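STRUCTURE:
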């Protein structure tokens, strides 16, 4: 009895401490967050990452504002896109879920983003006003539902939206004139507004609208409420159109681009001639085309003057926005991130008189091989820069691997919000701010694309003209495993140390000493992949391998309890649980009602075969098997609804994580059956810890 009272007092003190900590965190000002995503900009296109190191007689891009941002904040030198093309990459970014668990994969352009947690829903729940500006392309393909698309940004957590709804609309940068790709629609929430946007170059349009939102928001809220902005540019990708004029002088509150809100002159650069302005740094540029200083230099082809001008326009826009943050005195508490969605593109969509757009001209892939649609480093390694003056030391370089899907948990962490259990990414805040121990990012990519890696002479002979088809890329430590044209789960990975060998010239898989790592890659390729009917893989029907049973394993499930009031199932941000123990059944853990339980164990599978898992709960719950999101009874879940999923498993032990919210109805039941048709309840009889 005395022990019971002591436990009750202990739980009460923990809950009071948690409430006090939460109150203190809320009292601290949450940062504004601006996430800037550009389209098909290569790692090598940034001055600070690659262009500044090139010889003076070679073509070079200049990004002075992004270089300044990197100097003031941090560079992430080893951040990866979740896929080497925009739709799956952007979907994984917004949902925080890698391609092994994603709803949108491969070239599923315009497919509706799943109705689940997003960056916007998580931050909105944390008290943020959320806005999306620019390219969306995740709305749903049924045009009959226009403008009420099933996955309109306003249905995925955003309070406001202004931009191109469809993926292909972003291939034209003048929505009214439609110079090369025809007229396009621009949407302000559910209203089509392109009729008033004459001579509006979209890089300028999105920038001016972003500034207009920030100015209006700060005037209204005076820094008492944070905002989250997803600013998704459609440049430099696709048709390489030019602005109408030079970037307006100055920047920030009084200068730079301005939102005029006048029909026919919506922004202050909507004058002059469309598709006409070449930046003066490039207008008369020449280069040593044959690498022989004794021969005359050649002028840059117009195609590359266009590309360089488009990149410089983006750079000017970032400088303009950062100046605005300073003018409004909110720069110190604003986290601003800049990155791209995949590697550099080979498209230009220009008339035939223009030379093709080859990323070789500027070496846009940097020190790597591969471009957009490739799973070589050049197709996946992203130019990523972040500034957060209040928290990130200036000039910091982060060399640890990460993915775009890590930004959702990073923003949640920065905002003091719980991270949904569904998320496969990890928070980068500890690495960025040098506080706490960073979690290891699980770098996993899968993608299908017919065709081949371009046969550029700059690429390794073993990479150039390589047939793509089914591809995978995984990373463990400094080692990357890559497979092209996958035929079966038994195919070997090529293995490269991408820290010492970024160009991936030395395939270490031939070394007998790496046979264990080879098997580790093969296992991970199955343990991180959930089958998707719309993106079939040659390894879908292969049984998932188990893990080695620990010598000290005992029967039961370990449980951890995190107190608090949670609106969704979470992998709690708290580093230590308030209580823990071991149970033989899911109902045996004795904890207060408010909080979250995490059950951990290895389920024993007696025989290789197909297994069906089902779950029902009176609250909310989520189940992970290895790195696979197995059962989602969280977002939109109806109490007592039965959900189930079938997977192929090898005989052996398989790690399970069960996350369950505690409420007034704490019923939680998880059952599974094999091919014998006999159902078993998850318990200490079939689990060890």
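SEQUENCE:
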């Amino acid at each position: 009895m005395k022990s019971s009272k002591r436990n009750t007092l202990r739980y009460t003190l923990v809950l009071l401490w948690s409430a006090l900590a939460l109150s203190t965190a809320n009292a601290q000002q949450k940062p504004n967050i601006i996430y800037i995503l550009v389209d098909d900009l290569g790692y090598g296109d940034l001055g600070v990452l690659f262009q500044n190191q090139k010889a003076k007689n070679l073509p070079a891009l200049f990004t002075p504002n992004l270089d300044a941002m990197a100097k003031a904040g941090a560079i992430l030198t080893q951040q990866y896109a979740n896929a080497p093309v925009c739709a799956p990459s952007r979907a994984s970014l917004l949902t925080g879920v890698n391609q092994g668990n994603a709803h949108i994969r491969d070239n599923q352009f315009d497919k509706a983003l799943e109705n689940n947690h997003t960056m916007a829903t998580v931050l909105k729940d944390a008290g943020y006003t959320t806005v999306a500006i620019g390219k969306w392309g995740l709305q749903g393909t049924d045009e009959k539902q226009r403008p009420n698309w099933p996955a309109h940004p306003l249905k995925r957590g955003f309070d406001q939206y202004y931009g191109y709804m469809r993926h292909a609309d972003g291939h034209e940068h003048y929505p009214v004139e439609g110079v090369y790709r025809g007229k396009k629609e621009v949407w302000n929430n559910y209203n089509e507004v392109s009729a008033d946007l004459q001579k509006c170059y979209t890089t300028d349009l999105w920038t001016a609208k972003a500034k207009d939102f920030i100015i209006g928001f700060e005037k209204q809220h005076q820094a008492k409420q944070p905002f989250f902005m997803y600013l998704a540019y459609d440049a430099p990708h696709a048709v390489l159109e030019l602005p109408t004029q030079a970037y307006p002088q100055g920047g920030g509150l009084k200068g730079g681009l301005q939102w005029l809100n006048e029909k026919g002159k919506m922004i202050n650069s909507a004058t002059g001639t469309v598709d006409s302005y070449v930046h003066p740094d490039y207008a008369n540029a020449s280069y040593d085309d044959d690498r022989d200083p004794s021969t005359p230099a050649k002028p840059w082809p117009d195609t590359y003057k266009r590309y360089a001008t488009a990149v410089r326009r983006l750079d000017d826009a970032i400088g303009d926005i950062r100046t605005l943050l300073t003018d409004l005195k909110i720069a110190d508490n604003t986290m601003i991130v800049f990155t791209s969605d995949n590697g550099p593109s080979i498209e230009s969509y220009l008339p035939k008189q223009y030379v093709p757009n080859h990323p070789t001209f500027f070496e846009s892939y940097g020190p790597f091989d591969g471009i957009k649609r490739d799973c070589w480093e050049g197709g996946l390694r992203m130019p990523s820069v972040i500034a957060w003056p209040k928290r990130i030391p200036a000039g910091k370089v982060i060399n640890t691997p990460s993915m775009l899907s890590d930004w959702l948990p990073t923003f949640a962490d920065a905002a003091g919000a719980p991270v949904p259990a569904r998320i496969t990414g990890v928070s980068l805040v500890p690495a960025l701010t040098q506080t706490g121990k960073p979690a290891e990012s699980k770098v996993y990519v899968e993608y299908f694309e017919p065709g081949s890696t371009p046969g550029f002479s700059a690429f390794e002979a073993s990479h150039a003209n390589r047939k793509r088809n089914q591809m995978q890329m995984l990373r463990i430590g400094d080692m990357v495993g890559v497979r092209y044209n996958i035929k079966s789960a038994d195919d070997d990975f090529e293995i490269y140390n991408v820290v010492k060998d970024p160009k991936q010239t030395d395939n270490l898989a031939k070394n007998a000493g790496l046979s264990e790592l080879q098997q580790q890659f093969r296992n991970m390729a199955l343990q991180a992949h959930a089958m998707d009917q719309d993106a079939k893989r040659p390894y879908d029907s292969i049984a998932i391998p188990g893990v080695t049973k620990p010598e000290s394993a005992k029967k039961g499930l370990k449980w951890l309890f995190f107190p608090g009031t949670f609106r969704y199932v979470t992998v709690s941000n708290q580093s230590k649980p308030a209580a823990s123990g071991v149970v033989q059944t899911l109902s045996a853990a004795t904890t207060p009602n408010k909080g979250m339980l995490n059950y951990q164990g290895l389920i024993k599978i007696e025989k290789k075969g197909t297994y069906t898992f089902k779950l029902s709960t009176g609250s909310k719950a989520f189940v992970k098997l290895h790195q696979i999101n197995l059962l989602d009874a969280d977002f939109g879940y109806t109490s007592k609804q039965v959900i189930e999923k079938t997977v192929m498993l090898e005989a052996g032990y398989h790690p399970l994580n069960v996350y369950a919210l505690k409420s007034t109805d704490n019923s939680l039941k998880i059952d599974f059956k094999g091919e014998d048709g006999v159902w078993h309840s998850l318990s200490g009889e079939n689990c060890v810890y």
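REMARK: Residues 1-28 have pLDDT under 50 and may be disordered.
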